[in-house]
Amino acid sequence: MTPLHSKGRPTVQERDDRGGAARLGAAEIGAALGERATLLQFSSAFCQPCRATRRTLAEVAGMVEGVAHVEIDAEDHLALVRELEVLRTPTVLVLDAEGAIVRRAAGQPRKADVIAALGAAVRD
Fold this sequence. Notes:
Layout: E1 11-13, H1 26-29, E2 37-43, H2 48-63, E3 67-73, H3 78-83, E4 91-96, E5 101-106, H4 111-121
Parallel strand pairs: 2-3
Antiparallel strand pairs: 1-5, 2-4, 4-5
């Protein structure tokens, strides 16, 4: 799907541009996937919006059972950054229980947007 753009707002995509088939597992992200979903955050050391995003994602993960928040330092994982075409930090990928990318946002997301994005990933 085409990314949605608005000034000062994150860029969000519905599915991974590579056909939605991309899957990530514990080996790729360096941590276990959440039982129901994973909020995967790409950050960099001096990124102020990354700190705020970390707080937001940790709060949402704490509110929704079975959701994990995993933060990856983009500089330490350049191969993965290139493979996933992460162009800026923070970038957040919402993964379903199997590790499929169901949502992608570049920029600092709002809490309400993260919760809404989880709806596409979390299966009851």
